[in-house]
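Checklist before submission:
- one chain only
- standard amino acids only
- sequence pasted in full

Submission:
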Amino acid sequence: MTAPAASYSKENPLAARLLENRVLNKDGSSKDTRHLVIDIAGSGLTYQVGDSLGVYPSNRPQAVDEIIALLGATGNEPVSLPRLSGPVSLQEALASKLSLSGPTRKILETLAARTADPREKEQLAALLAPEAKEAQEMFLGQREYIDLLEEFPGAKLSPQELVDHLRRLMPRLRPWSRLPRLALPRRPLPLPPPLVPWTPRRPRARCGRP
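Returned file contents:
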């Protein structure tokens, strides 16, 4: 039996089925932008102009496993997150609760305090210097948290220390600018979010929006 529409929320999203995944780019394009269609049949959900569809993403298993390995963890360690009533495993937190991108100055400060490597301390001190604001922004803009863990292995962070720096993984909101021909609950939802593999200045492949 399908749950009523009122039971779905950002804390309890609908697990919808992907009906169509079609490449929109021409042959030979360096991009991979796709048109997706999501089935909400039986959910009781309806939509109209001005509404947005929130798609809850998950992080790539490979990236999650790499971070766990860099921490020297197993993934089973319990970690506490804001707005959750109890702890979850590190694996679950990294996979579906937290964003692995967008490092800030705060993580550099933590790495500088934790590392015992003189070279790492020197590099981090230079990035944290007041006159290095522009260089720091460029440095962080080209990296994700996994890159920093790789670059500063002398800084031994606990699972909880790392997740305390990570932002909540937010839904990707896609607005509708027009009504479908039949605004019925059983009609599949056309969804055109771009999925674009990209490569930052550092040589680690990414998948998302550059």
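Reviewer check: The chain is about 30% helix and 15% strand.
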